[in-house]
Amino acid sequence: MAQKIAFITGGNRGLGFQTALDLKDPGVKVVIGSRDLAQGEKAVEKLRAAGVDADVLQFDITKTSDYQAAYDYFDSRYGRLDILVNNAGIAAGTFPGTGPEHSASEVPSGVLHKVFETNFFAVVALTDTLLPLIKKSAAGRIVNLSSILGSLKLHADPNSPIYHAKSFAYDASKTALNAFTIHLAYELRDTKIKVNSAHPGWVKTDMGGEQATMELSEGGKTSAALATLADDGPSGGYFHQGKPLPW
Ligand SMILES: NC(=O)c1ccc[n+]([C@@H]2O[C@H](COP(=O)([O-])OP(=O)(O)OC[C@H]3O[C@@H](n4cnc5c(N)ncnc54)[C@H](OP(=O)(O)O)[C@@H]3O)[C@@H](O)[C@H]2O)c1
Question: Which atom of ligand 1 is nearest to the CA of 145?
Answer without folding.
Answer: 45
